[in-house]
Specification:
Distance between the termini: 72 Å
Shape: elongated
Number of helices: 5
Order of helices and strands: HHHHH
Structural class: mainly alpha
Radius of gyration: 23 Å
């Protein structure tokens, strides 16, 4: 009987500890920052980005910044309008020439806005 109670208490402590850890820990969250978008845009313009990386960054919604969400949606729309799945596998850029030009303009606008916000934050 003593062995049963010992095993029962050890199991109860282990399961109770696991439940406490799961209740107190938060779900990890990914927060897309302007630097992430700029990096993937630069890679796309240099034809160094894969579709998986593009879809991972651009396909994840941005909930903390409406402007970044608009940029992300515009980039997603560019892929839908000017990109073809499998282009990278065939050695071609992710976007066609018109899409590359629009992505470059979008990238420059985001970079200018990010730099302006940094200057405003640093007195």
């Amino acid at each position: 009987m003593a062995l049963f109670l010992t095993v029962f208490l050890v199991c109860l402590i282990i399961f109770g500890g696991m439940v406490a850890i799961l209740m107190l820990s938060r779900t990890p969250r990914y927060r897309t920052e302007p630097e992430h978008l700029l990096e993937v845009f630069d890679k796309a313009l240099d034809s160094r980005v894969g579709e998986t990386e593009w879809n991972t960054i651009v396909g994840y919604p941005v909930r903390h910044d409406d402007y970044l969400e608009g940029v992300r949606r515009r980039a997603q729309r560019l892929m839908e309008e000017h990109g073809r799945h499998g282009r990278v596998a065939r050695g071609k850029p992710l976007l066609d020439a018109e899409g590359q030009a629009e992505l470059a303009a979008l990238r420059d606008h985001l970079a200018a806005r990010t730099q302006l916000r940094r200057r405003q934050a640093d007195p």
